[in-house]
Structures are given as structure tokens and as C-alpha cells.
Amino acid sequence: MKVDVLLGLQWGDEGKGKVVDVLTPKYDIVARFQGGPNAGHTLEFEGEKYILKSIPSGIFQEGKMNIIGNGVVIDPALFKKEVEALEATGHTLTDRLSISKKAHLILPTHRLLDAASEKAMGNAKIGTTGRGIGPAYTDKISRNGLRVGDLFHNFEEKYKNAVARHKEQLSQYQFEYDLEALEKEWFEGVEKLKTFRIIESEHFINKQLAGGAKVLAEGAQGSMLDIDFGSYPFVTSSNTICAGACTGLGIAPNRIGEVFGIFKAYCTRVGSGPFPTELFDEDGQLLRDNGKEYGSVTGRPRRCGWIDLVALRYTIMLNGVTRLVMMKSDVLDSFETIKACVSYNVNGVETEDLPFDITEGFEPIYVDLPGWKTDMTKMRSEDEFPEEFNNYISFLEEELGVPVAIVSLGPDRAQTIIR
Ligand code: GDP
Ligand code: IMO
Ligand code: MG
Fold this sequence. Notes:
binds 6-O-phosphoryl inosine monophosphate; globular; ten-stranded mixed β-sheet; binds guanosine-5'-diphosphate; single chain
């Protein structure tokens, strides 16, 4: 069998969690392949709302195995909180969640290093989620990281050495911290983590595939935050693109099946960095208000703007997207006119290719499309779509060259239309 991949095509928060939950009944296994508790994946159903950070979004569907893959970074303290919050609502997870031995650990000192580095950068800061993501992946790449599998072999010494190294790094910053309190909850988290099945997930997944199981790989963040192809340096520290599913789960490229690329019918971003179609006017505020655009991890207001087809064409290319998923279409319900950026004017030359530098020296070129001015949130079938909405979808499909297979009209599981 093949592995289908679902990932964000913009700057994150496209609605990945919701769609993974909707698609899970078609799969046997849902696996996260990168990122960590910087993610906040929101699911709403039966009047309840859940925000998942490290746990895959297939967790609420009966009889499915969820895997935290080797490409993910895990903070045991935050993991424990997340698990306990779900347990408190009656969900038991130990029988349906497994964790890769090769996933790297986010230590308390990684979180401190993240905060210290951001503080030192002042206005030039990345605007990270403060979860220690960058420092944890830095240790991974510099071959100093600690992995989940290390918890079972002489861990105390490895931990002490890592912390000594981190303290040395922290001493270079003007930064006060209380490590003891953080360590206490971290080690309690480690005990919680150990109650789950810790597996060699690459073997498990490949054996399951060979036996006919269907796997959905769940991405975190979005392609414009990819460490290689995103708006560097204002990116996260992992490969968020489809290739990340291969390295983050141990599956071969020829195993990739469908690639679901998710985008909002407009665009948002949290944190610093370029955002060519960002709006600073009342339309931007309307998108923020209608879309409740406040970060699910940090609560920060998200920056809002029009859909950027230049950036989308780029990320569709990088990911080999086979099906598009359009989210939050309802947020545009009240707009008279909708704008879509179709190309950039770079120093007087029109281009449809994303330039190396999207900070300055260029201008987005928009086309205007008529809004549908209809409340779509209660629609349950494609047949009810207003003509202007169908035209918007057709326009996007033509511009992007990939069919829109799923449309989302609200945060609830039920507000989803599969075409
Ligand atoms: P993720 O990180 O990609 O899983 O997305 P987030 O959960 O961070 O952000 C998406 C937000 O939009 C969440 O608050 C969802 O509940 C909400 N949402 C998802 N789909 C829709 C939709 O179609 N319409 C509206 N209005 N909200 C949606
Ligand atoms: P989900 O999975 C939106 C952004 C941060 C910051 C940059 C680096 O919910 O879509 P990091 O903490 O990763 O070092 O921060 O990346 N960022 C996200 N933005 N959604 C996310 O995840 C994000 N995860 C990280 O705001 O700009
Ligand atoms: Mg999110």
C-alpha cells in the first residue's frame, strides 16, 4: 500500500487537524512526521473542541493506530499535559498511540535556549512558539540530540552532559532562568511517556504497509515554513514538505500516494517574516474577526491577507500535490469582492515564480473575483454552492492545475464537503 500525505501549503494553521480527523476513517494508521508542540491542530465535533500539539489528529477515531514518528521532536512535559487533558475528557490513548524510539527529545534547556535567543534578537526575532523547537533540531543536526530510545540506556549521564552544554550556551545570554521547576515536570513527563508503546516505527509502518494497511502521514506547520524552501530564516526547523514524510517516518519516496495540500481560501501567518499579500486594512481585520485568527498555541493574533497563488504554485510543485483541500471558505462569506494574487511585479517584470527574496522590491498583482455573499456554514452538499463560489473554485483549479477535492465551510467535522 501507499502512504498518503496531508500537509499545509501556506504558513501553517490551514486546518490540517480538522481534515486529518475527517479522513482518518479511511486509514488504519495516522502518523506525524515532523515538528513538535509548536503545532496546534484544532478538531471540533459533537460540541467539543480539542487542540492537539504532539498527538496525531487521528486519535479520536476508534480502532486507529496513531504514531509519533522519528522526525518529530517531543517535550515530555508538554506531552504529559496533552495526554492528561485528553484523559480528563474520557479518552484513553495508551492502546492507540505509539512513539518512535528515534524521535528526538526537547529538553527543558532547549526551551530556555529558544527564549534566550529570541530575547537577544530583539526586533529581528523569528517570533517562534517558544517551545524549544529550533534548539532541539539544532542538537539533532549537530549530532548531540537525545532520543526517546535513549531514555532506557544510561539516560542520566547523557542528560547531564547535554544540560551542561546547554548551560554553557545559556551563559552567553543575559537571561535568568529556573531550571529546577522545569526539570521536575519534565521528568514526570518522561515517566508518562514510558507508559506508551515505544517502537521502531519505521519497521512497524513498513510491515503494516506490506500487510495492506493504509497510512496517512500528517504534516505540521506549512510549506512556507519549511527549513529549506520556506521564507528563510523566518521558518521552522524541520522539513515540512512531502519529502519530510519520507525522512520523518522511514518510508521510501516510491511509497508516497496521494498528497493532500491544504490551504485557506485566503492566507495567514503568525510570527515574523515576509508575507507578500498581508492586509493592514479593514479587509484584513474582517478576515481575522470572521476567521477567529488567533494562534492555537500562543494566542497571538494571526496576520491575515489575500490568497497568494504564486506561493501556492510553488508549494504545490515542491510537494507533488494531487488533491487540494480548501479551508475556511466561510470566512469569505460576507465579502463583496475577493482578491487573489496571481503574479508578482518584480522590478517591473511580471513573474509567476516565487522570487528568492520576498521581503522587498516586488508587488503582488491581484485579480478581483465577485464574492458569493451567502452564509455557507450550513451547506452539506456541493449542489447548494452559490455560482460565485463554484467560480472561485474553478478559478483556483485552473490557476493551480490541481483539483479541489475537499471544501471546508466551518470548524466542525460535519462542515466538510468531499467532492
Ligand atoms: P492546523 O494547525 O492546520 O490544524 O490549523 P489550526 O487548528 O491551528 O487553525 C485552524 C483554525 O480554523 C482552527 O481554529 C479550526 O477550528 C478552524 N477551522 C478549520 N476549518 C475551518 C473552516 O472551514 N471554517 C472556519 N471558520 N474555521 C475553520
Ligand atoms: P501548525 O502545525 C503556524 C511558526 C512560528 C514562527 C516560526 C518558527 O499548527 O500549523 P518555531 O517555534 O517552530 O521555531 O517557530 O514558525 N510556526 C507556526 N505557525 N502554525 C504552526 O503549526 C507553526 N509552528 C511554528 O510562529 O514564525
Ligand atoms: Mg495550528
